[in-house]
# Entry
Amino acid sequence: MPHCSEAWDAIARYIYAGLQGGSIMKGWMKKENEMIACCSDGTRPVIFKIERMDEEE
# Structure
């Protein structure tokens, strides 16, 4: 299924940071493993909640 390249551009940096185990938005969100991002389409904005889910050891 095709995806919107503008939406991917808006969230890719947070996805890659989370995949590497990094803090997605430390200091900006209550939980450092979460981020709220929005695509740049002003007429049909889409809001994304991105959450890194750590595995229990």
The CA atoms of residues 29 and 51 lie 11 Å apart. The longest strand covers residues 34-38.
